[in-house]
From TrEMBL:
One of its GO terms (molecular function) is oxidoreductase activity. The keyword Oxidoreductase applies. InterPro entries: FAD-dep_OxRdtase (IPR006076), FAD/NAD-bd_sf (IPR036188). Residues 3-343 form the FAD dependent oxidoreductase domain. The keyword Oxidoreductase applies. This is FAD-binding oxidoreductase. GO terms for cellular component: cytoplasm.
Amino acid sequence: MIGIIGGGIIGIATAYELAKLGEEVIVFEKRYFGSGSTFRCASGIRAQFTDEANIRLMKYSIDKWKKLSEELEYEVMFQQTGYLFLATSEEEVKAFKRNIKLQNKFGVPTKLITPEEAKEIVPPLNADAFLAGAWNPEDGKASPFHTLYGYKRAGEKLGVRFYPYTEVIGIKKNDKWIIKTTRGEFRVDVIVNATNAWGRRINSMIGKDIVPIKPFKHQLVKTEPIERGQIEPLVCPPAWSDSYVIQDGEDGGVICGTALEYKGNPDDVTPTYDFVKEALKWAVKIVPALKHVHIIRQWAGYYAKTPDNNPAIGELEEDFYVAIGFSGHGFMMAPAVSQALAEKIVKGKTKVPLDWEWFDPYRFERGELRSSAFQIG
């Protein structure tokens, strides 16, 4: 029996992958499934990272995303609408060229394009403000809601038991792990901590608070639907406070984000007016026509950030695994990470190109930070 703590996309997908390998799995979530970071993300999926470990992992993940609806027998709304990063200085153009060379080395087809070419991809773009773009048409987006439900539905068919509104309040070990919850105690052979921003709370229950995650409130603003095909890629000029805009893949509304963040308690998801002002300031610079569109929604969630913006994935103690601290990248990485973790637990190895040393949870204790994972918003 394997117990997974955390009912976001990482926990639910890992449960499904474990069940595919014949394991008996139970999943605990203290609120509703997806209530943490998953249902609050901007839906983007990209391989445009700036280091080998994340590029290779995300290339594999995107290959899985392409077939995910078919595998789960449920439409997750994955669309390869691309990511378009925009440079505002010659220094940025040079950095884009370095990043593109590295991405191309591992089979990611990013290329440098002109502002005119960028405007062909995003017709209302303020192209005059930019010098060049880094464009990967194989990046994309998917529905967090449909994806999580698709994994959960598939897991249920394989016998996974899901316990919503079941908080884990303690963990102890004798011959097996005993998970104490608000529904009673459960005995399991293996535990997976997939609680992300709440990861330290769970690790502390076994005396291993060694992954220094800090939760930061991030927010999003969404507009009324606009004509499809206007802002289909995620569009981001990193120099403009890592701000971005992207049309929702389901209804065509425009999601607007920016790097304004607040350190705090991940249970507090109250949005702020300051964020609305900051996000829209940049959104209308990227696409001026957005000043004529109505705002219909605003919400908040948390980036579970580690000191190097890379997640902690691996074994923390014998038969106790973590996949936490995704720093805003958990949704896009979920297909690859969940397969890798499940195979590691059951088989001791995986065919997924996940660099276990790079994501080692003990790297922080040793003071061996990785190069910072490229994060936006």
